[in-house]
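Working notes for the structural subgroup meeting. M.R. asked for a predicted model of this chain before we commit to crystallization trials. I am recording the input and output together here so anyone reviewing the notebook later can reproduce the run.

Input as submitted:
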Amino acid sequence: MKVTVSRKAHFNAAHRLHNKAWSDEKNKAVYGLCNNPNYHGHNYEIIASVTGKIDEETGYVIDIKTLKDIIKLEVEDAFDHKNLNLDVPEFKNVIPTAENIVVVIHKKIKNKLKEGLDLEVTLYETPRNFVSYAGE
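Returned structure, recorded in token form:
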């Protein structure tokens, strides 16, 4: 029997969508306002959902406090009140689109989970715009 345990969290961050290989005109045409050279910010929400078998001894799939601590360290502390383009090493050569951000978050959390647990991360960039990633 598998069960999914989820934890919601948030962080605030600025970013700029800009492809260094393109001209300024092409960046503006593709990314519009999100290409603002002075950056722009979002109040991001994430939901990290861990799926696995219930441990017979503890009754948990994962201790929710463990998941909370992983998210705090790997996401909130790493991204909150940061400029993703300038302050977060994972985006030095990666455009911080919602799609790329959710993949980075997934990798950071997945690396801290016990073997055999599945993970899906949903990232809300706005209340109506969100992406999900469950790994490959």
